[in-house]
Amino acid sequence: MSKQHQGHTARKRFGQNFLHDPYVISSIVDAINPQPGENMVEIGPGLGALTEPVCDHIDKLTVVELDRDLAARLRSHPFIAAKLNIVEADAMKFDFSSLVDTVKPLRVFGNLPYNISTPLLFHLFSFAQHISDMHFMLQKEVVKRMAAAPGNKDYGRLSVMTQYHCKVLPVLEVPPGAFKPAPKVDSAVVRLLPYSDKPVKVISAQRLNQVCAQAFNQRRKTIRNSLKTLLSEKQIVDLGLNPDARAETLSLGDFAALADLVENTIGG
């Protein structure tokens, strides 16, 4: 597998770490379980460590790749080039709804560059209604934050917003040695299943994100202080919440109630 690394130096600015461990690769492909006829999309295929084995199972795969050299390599790939729809674009700005087939929702996967993983996830959440599932390799800490429950030290804005949009299922942990160059952190694969019916209703997902960002921005502050530019203490009390509570103790439902109150107060 390591031969495929010859001739391409990992670029720091793209956050490139290439997967090369055959056992880990086959475990990830098994978790994705690609089937013929599905609308599969890979973000950041890199040197094709996942692209090649996924293409063994399907006839067509869209890949979104920012690095021109890597896109060119895939375009001339001896085995899989004919199966690929190569989109040279920045996944952070790409309109994923443009890939939607009327009948088939997207199945998205990738080894996400760790330096942009959180904003990229938020970008993908805006297309959640077009996506049936996502499988991503991420920094293990990020996966812990996505899955964290209220009261946990890892619980934060990413936890609330991910759990608003998706069911979060950690799949497997991956050691640094599975990559070249080896990153300084452990990695993990997560499965995200976007909800067709969200677990809570909110008037505005953007408002929910704003309230979470403000509440978690200074974690040690009480919500009375962190949200004081948005809501009065009385408004918080009237919702049945303790203004002395800290953000990390509030549930998704609590944040939804706060967001709707803010939306009705200043956005409505």
From TrEMBL:
Provide the binding site for S-adenosyl-L-methionine: 17, 19, 44, 65, 90, 111
Tell me which residues make up the Ribosomal RNA adenine methylase transferase N-terminal domain.
24-196
State the Gene Ontology terms under molecular function.
methyltransferase activity
EC number(s) on file = 2.1.1.182
List this protein's GO terms for biological process.
methylation
Cell location: Cytoplasm
Q: What is its main location?
A: cytoplasm
Gene3D superfamilies, per this entry? Answer: Ribosomal RNA adenine dimethylase-like, domain 2 (1.10.8.100), Vaccinia Virus protein VP39 (3.40.50.150)
Catalytic activity as recorded in UniProt: adenosine(1518)/adenosine(1519) in 16S rRNA + 4 S-adenosyl-L-methionine = N(6)-dimethyladenosine(1518)/N(6)-dimethyladenosine(1519) in 16S rRNA + 4 S-adenosyl-L-homocysteine + 4 H(+)
The record ties this protein, via SUPFAM superfamilies, to: S-adenosyl-L-methionine-dependent methyltransferases
- One Pfam entry for this protein is RrnaAD
At the top of the EC hierarchy, this enzyme's class is: transferase
NCBIfam families per UniProt: ksgA
Which function does this protein serve?
Answer: Specifically dimethylates two adjacent adenosines (A1518 and A1519) in the loop of a conserved hairpin near the 3'-end of 16S rRNA in the 30S particle. May play a critical role in biogenesis of 30S subunits.
Under which name does UniProt file this protein? Answer: Ribosomal RNA small subunit methyltransferase A
Natural source organism: Lacimicrobium alkaliphilum
